[in-house]
Every structure is written in structure tokens, then in C-alpha cells.
Specification:
The complex is a heterodimer of chains A (256) and B (349). With 256 residues, chain A is mainly alpha-helical. Chain A is built from twelve helices and one strand. The chains are: A mainly alpha (256), B mainly alpha (349). The complex binds protoporphyrin IX containing FE (HEM).
Chain lengths: 256, 349
């Protein structure tokens, strides 16, 4: 205000303060949010950051010191979850352009990769993300094993975890058929053939998965519905139980 | 009115006596209705042993009598160790905390929505010696006593204990001094039997969450770069009459396919052990009875899992790289790679 006028900078600051201090913004941000005006770093607010946010609330307010070390969990469980979220987002995008019928599936994927803005990128993200998720879930399981983190009271969470692994594989496998090209068709054929060798139930499992004795057009629809609806639905439920149990079983295990 | 077991009454009386600083026998007598109201010695105003406040609104049925923690107005108290959000449903052994009898999840003890900075949720029943945590209801003297609600339908156990003895404000209590009333006796054992030892903890925000954010950025970066560089394969349209040679399963099943290729799958030489192995895998926590998590105590388990890992990795790599036409052995540097997932990236032939 050297020359008696308010500078642009001052006006911007004022406007920002006005918006940030407004009732609307104030009502959106819960107490303790680090985005709130006048947020101050205090132990109390650090607790509120976690407690007062629906997403961060998955966490406890405090974690064991060793759990923060990257070398303990390598964040693998969290990354599996994050990849699942990414896959959901990219998957919804793909659903806009894809019809699960034997006539159109292949050309839809082809058109997606060539005609749709970012179509190819999103398809790649979805595909490689899925492979990475299988890998990260597997590595997560290995780290849990090496830490003996499945020991009491965490036995049941291991069981939930094995179901999650199975569901992850099923999600990936059911998506594999959808491009409806030679790779998809025959990889699924080989895969389901292997399932049929399982004693006693194998043949029925194969029949149920394929909606018939062989891969057909109805298999495509079946895999589609399983892939975009059924398996995600189930896996979300199991994940919820899994995360909840991590907390209820006393937080992350260890230190060794 | 429900009969209150002698032992409970006694414990209650002990707690109350301790809080008020009067002989136990007197309190007990009062509780049984056999004695005169206990005379409370002049309490110091500072010493408030209050803990849990009963919402005494008459219209509110007493099913959930304990609702709020009344924070002491102590400005100098240390920063809130908001143990509100502990990992397990356990009342830590160390600080004897007042707790709720019928609240399975004592999770949030945060103050009401917009906290006044000085207020702190502190639960503090002064009952170090008593085996059970004691929740004491507090009454302002000027307020009327809680309406007896013991016979009302829907009143839980707690309620009946509460109303068993509508407390009469002890005679001689000076104006403005709060008196204590026993609300309920809570067993020391919580619904989950997890031992909570004091551990070295840090705040999730910022320590853990920054770490997670970093990991998230890293994986996103890797994935985006991968997706720009490597294109997803799209081969010829599906054709039921043209079996490709070789036909491979998705990579995570290739180890199994490799294994199956050694045997005639019909004779169940592979599948039976595989399926059994998978079943045992689920049961790992129940089979491994060794309580230790120290690596040196778990040599066998670690060796077993490492063998499984090495075996799975070897079989998968063979399946991906070393299997060519007719699923026969092939050297990738001689015969090329037969793995169509990466077809648009690695141009081999
Ligand atoms: C979709 C798949 C999965 C997701 C999203 C997931 C997520 C998580 C997360 C976020 C944690 C917290 C600690 C960490 O990040 O390591 C965790 C812990 C745990 N997970 Fe998973 N997990 C999955 C699959 C599995 C599998 C396959 C197993 C084992 C068979 C498993 C067993 C466990 C156990 C026992 C813990 C507790 C570990 C400890 O306390 O140290 N999870 N999981």
C-alpha cells in the first residue's frame, strides 16, 4: 500500500481468505483438516486429520513407529488397494466404449485404441495395472509370510487374504477374455482346461465359468458381467473386512 | 427392581467411598438403604474425579446413559494423547480408563464437533487398585436427581444399575461442588482379548500418510511410463478354428501349465497335490503352531515358503520364455519369445 492503493497481491490474498473463511468451505472441511484456514500443526490436529476424514479414517490415529519404515510393509498391501482403485477408474472409462458381444467386442477394442482420445493409454493403464496388481498382491502375501504376520491374532486375516488373492486372479482372468482376440480366446481356453483337471469339481467349475463346455459368445457375456460387476463387488467386501481386521487385530504386526 | 449382587454393590461402594473419601461401610449401608446418607468431608474444589457424564435428560431413555466425556478445564494438561482411535477394542492396561459397559467400540472419544482447543478428552477414574474400571456418573447439585427408570422397558443392564440407587446429593455438599454417583461397574476384560502393551507410536499424519503418498506417486509413475512405452496386445479376432501354436495361459497360470505339461493331467498326478497344496495354504496360520515371528526361529517355515517362491518363479519363467512351438523347449535367444502379452513391445521373431 505504498502508493495508497491496494496491490493486486493484497487483493488476491484478501479474496483467498474470504473464500477460505466462508461458511461453505468451512462446512466442507472438517475440524482439523490440514486444508482449513489457520491449520496449525499440533498433536491434536494431527489426530483430527485422520479421525475427521472419511477416507483417511481407514488409518488409526497413530501407528507403531516401525510400521512407518518403508522397509517393513513396502506398502505392498496399500499399493494393491491403490491399483484396485486405479483399475476401477480406468475400467469405468473402458466400459463406455465396449460392448460385450462377440460381434462387436473386438472392433470396439480396436476403435478404442485408435479413435478415442487417450483410449490407448487408458487401455494400457488398465492392462498393465492389472498385471501389477497380481504381482503386488502376491508380493504382499510373501512379505506377510516372511514376517509371520499371520500368527495369532491375525490368522483369519490371512484366510481373508487368500480369498483376496483368488479374487484378484479371477478378476484378471475374466478380463483377459474381453478383447476377444486370439490371445484372449485361447489363453482362457487353456486356463479353463486346467481348471477342469481339478478332481471332482473341475468339470463343473469349467462349465459354470464358460456357460457351456467351450468358450462361446455366451462366455464373453458371462466373463464381462463377472469382471465388471460380480468380482469387484465381492472383492470390495473382502477388502473391507481385511482392512477392518488389520485394525482390530492390533494394527500392523511386528516389529520382528 | 433388579437385585444387585452383593459383590457388585461392594465394589461400587468401594469406588464411591474412595472418590468421596468416606468409609466404605457407610456408603455400603447407604446403598442398601440401611444407613443415613453419607456425610462427605469438605472436598477440595480442584479434585474432580469426574469421568463420564450421564445425559440426564428425562425424555432420553437410559439405554445409553453414558455419552459424553466431560473434559476437565485444565489448560496446562499435556497434549491430548487421543487414544481415542486405538487399534483394538481394548482398554489399555496402563491407564485405567472409564469405559462404557455396552459400547463395543470405545473408538471415538473426540469432543463434540467443533472442539474448544483447551478441552481434552481425558478419561480418569481414580481406581488404580480396583480390578475393574469404574464409570462414575456425575451430578450437578442444582439439577434434580435422575428420574428412576429401572423398570422402564428397554433399559439395559447398565440402566438398571444406574437407577438402582438414585443418588441423593449428599448432605453438606457445598454449592457448586460436584458429587459422584456410581454409574456402572465395567469388567476389565473387553470383548476382544488383545493385550495392549504400550508401544512406540507416531502420528499417522504426517508420517505414514506421506510415505503412502510417495509410494502412490511412484507406482503411478511406473504405470504411466509402462503404459506409454508398452502397448497392449491385440491379435487377430478370436477364431475358434485356428488354435495358435503354442497356446499359453495368462502368465500367472503359466507355472501351473508348465507343471501340467510334465504329466498326463487326466491321471491327477499334478492336480491332486496342487489342490491339496492350495487348501493347506489357506490353513497356514492354523498349521504353523510356532508362536515366534523371529526369522531365526522359523527356519523351516521360511525355507518352505522360499522353495515355493523359487519353484513358482522358475516354472513361470520357463513357461513364459522357454516354451515355444508345441509348448516344447525353446531358447529365447535362438527360437524367439513366444509370449504374446508383450508382443507389441518386444519385436521378436
Ligand atoms: C486385493 C488384495 C489385498 C489387499 C488390497 C490387501 C491390503 C492390505 C493392507 C493395506 C494391509 C496393511 C499392511 C500392509 O500394507 O502390508 C494388509 C495387511 C495384511 N494382509 Fe493384505 N491385502 C491383500 C491381499 C492379501 C493376501 C493375498 C494375504 C495373504 C494370503 C493378505 C494377508 C494380510 C495379513 C495377514 C495382513 C496383516 C499384516 C500385518 O499385520 O503385518 N492380504 N493387507
Amino acid at each position: 500500500m505504498a502508493n495508497g492503493r491496494t496491490s493486486l497481491r493484497e487483493r488476491l490474498t484478501e479474496a483467498r481468505d474470504k473464500i477460505w473463511g466462508s461458511q461453505a468451505v468451512d462446512s466442507i472441511l472438517r475440524p482439523g483438516s490440514p486444508f482449513k484456514q489457520n491449520y496449525s500443526d499440533s498433536p491434536r490436529n494431527r489426530s483430527y486429520v485422520v479421525m475427521n476424514n472419511v477416507l483417511y479414517h481407514l488409518h488409526p490415529v497413530k501407528v507403531k513407529r516401525h510400521a512407518v519404515k518403508l522397509s517393513y510393509t513396502l506398502c505392498l498391501g496399500g499399493l494393491s488397494f491403490f491399483l484396485f482403485i486405479l483399475l476401477t477408474i480406468t475400467g469405468i472409462f473402458l466400459m463406455f466404449y465396449y460392448t460385450p458381444s462377440a460381434e462387436t467386442a473386438y472392433t470396439d477394442v480396436q476403435a478404442l485404441s485408435t479413435n478415442v482420445a487417450f483410449g490407448s493409454l487408458v487401455r494400457n493403464l488398465h492392462r498393465w495395472g492389472a498385471h501389477l496388481m497380481v504381482l503386488s498382491v502376491f508380493l504382499h502375501m510373501s512379505r506377510v509370510f516372511y514376517h509371520g504376520a499371520y500368527k495369532p491374532p491375525r490368522e483369519f486375516n490371512w484366510v481373508v487374504g487368500v480369498v483376496l488373492l483368488l479374487l484378484t486372479l479371477l478378476l484378471s482372468f475374466s478380463g483377459y477374455l474381453l478383447p476377444w482376440d486370439q490371445l484372449a480366446l485361447w489363453a482362457v481356453t487353456v486356463g479353463t482346461n486346467m481348471a477342469s483337471f481339478v478332481p471332482a469339481i473341475g468339470a463343473q467349475v469349467k462349465f459354470g465359468l464358460l456357460a457351456g463346455a467351450e468358450v462361446t459368445a455366451s462366455t464373453l457375456l458371462r466373463f464381462y458381467v463377472l469382471h465388471v460387476l460380480f468380482f469387484p463387488f465381492i472383492i470390495v467386501i473382502f477388502m473391507a473386512v481385511h482392512f477392518w481386521r488389520v485394525r482390530k487385530d492390533g494394527g500392523i504386526s511386528g516389529p520382528l | 427392581m433388579a437385585e444387585i449382587p452383593e459383590s457388585l454393590l461392594r465394589r461400587s461402594a468401594e469406588a464411591k467411598a474412595k472418590a468421596l473419601g468416606v468409609p466404605v461401610e457407610d456408603v455400603l449401608a447407604e446403598m442398601k438403604g440401611e444407613g443415613p446418607p453419607v456425610k462427605v468431608p469438605q472436598p477440595e474444589a480442584e479434585e474432580k474425579t469426574e469421568t463420564v457424564e450421564v445425559s440426564e435428560a428425562p425424555e432420553e431413555p437410559a439405554t445409553e446413559p453414558v455419552e459424553e466425556v466431560e473434559p476437565p478445564e485444565d489448560k496446562d494438561a499435556p497434549t491430548p494423547e487421543v487414544e481415542a482411535d486405538t487399534d483394538q477394542d481394548v482398554i489399555p492396561e496402563e491407564p485405567k480408563e472409564a469405559t462404557y459397559a455396552d459400547d463395543p467400540d470405545p473408538d471415538p472419544v473426540p469432543p463434540p464437533a467443533e472442539p474448544a482447543p483447551e478441552q481434552q478428552p481425558v478419561a480418569a477414574a481414580e481406581s488404580e487398585e480396583t480390578p475393574a474400571a469404574v464409570a462414575i456418573a456425575e451430578k450437578e447439585d442444582e439439577e434434580p436427581p435422575a428420574p428412576p427408570s429401572g423398570n422402564g422397558a428397554g433399559n439395559g443392564k447398565v440402566a438398571s444399575v444406574v437407577s438402582a440407587r438414585p443418588s441423593v446429593p449428599p448432605a453438606g455438599t457445598p454449592e457448586g461442588v460436584r458429587s459422584q454417583r456410581l454409574l456402572t461397574v465395567v469388567k476389565a476384560r473387553a470383548i476382544q482379548n488383545v493385550k495392549a502393551e504400550p508401544t512406540d507410536k507416531v502420528n499417522t499424519w504426517p508420517h505414514l500418510m506421506l510415505m503412502e503418498f510417495g509410494a502412490l506417486l511412484l507406482i503411478t509413475g511406473i504405470l504411466v511410463i509402462m503404459s506409454i512405452v508398452i502397448h497392449s496386445p491385440l491379435l487377430d479376432p478370436a477364431n475358434f478354428n485356428a488354435t495358435p501354436n503354442p497356446s499359453k495361459a495368462p502368465w500367472y497360470f503359466l507355472g501351473l501349465q508348465e507343471l501340467l505339461s510334465y504329466f498326463d493331467p487326466q491321471i491327477a498326478g499334478v492336480m491332486v497335490p496342487t489342490v491339496t497344496g492350495m487348501a493347506l495354504f489357506i490353513l497356514v496360520p492354523y498349521l504353523d503352531k510356532n508362536p515366534s515371528t523371529t526369522p531365526s526361529d522359523r527356519k523351516f517355515a521360511i525355507a518352505l515358503y522360499s522353495m515355493f517362491l523359487a519353484g513358482a518363479a522358475t516354472l513361470t519363467i520357463i513357461g513364459v520364455l522357454f516354451r515355444g512351438l508345441g509348448f516344447n523347449w525353446a531358447y529365447p535367444w535362438q527360437d524367439g519369445i513366444f509370449f504374446d502379452d508383450l508382443k507389441d513391445w518386444v519385436h521378436f521373431e
